[in-house]
Each structure stands twice: as C-alpha cells, then as structure tokens.
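input
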Amino acid sequence: MYAGMLVILTGWGMYLGSFSPFLLLPLFVMVLTAQQIIPEEKFWKKSLAARILRTKRAFPAGFGKESSYWQKQSCG
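output
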C-alpha cells in the first residue's frame, strides 16, 4: 500500500514534468515511516505478544505430544 502511494507520487511528479516533486519523495518516506509504519509495527507486536500469552495460558500443556494424549482419552 505504501509502495503504491510512492509510485503514485512519482507518477504525479513525472506528469508535472518538474524535478521538484522528486525531491519530496525521501521526505514522504521518512514522514510515513515515523508517523505510520513504526507505530503500526509497535501495535501489532504488542497485540501479537498478548495473543501468544493468552494462548499459552489457555493451553498450558501445548499442542504437541501432551495434547494428543488428551485427545485419545476423550475419544475412547
């Protein structure tokens, strides 16, 4: 999505036929990274970490050999 925005801005600069819009592309990337991408990554890391902890608390035995033991006990 962000790469697409950069392509659109590049096309706009080519349409204008001026070099000045190309000077703003690095500024666009820096602002986008600082204002959107870094906070978004922090949110997802925090959200994912919380989900992993909830899963570990809900299934303390895990999903490996221990859980297959309980599946066999409930079926037979």
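quick obs: Residues 2-75 form one domain.
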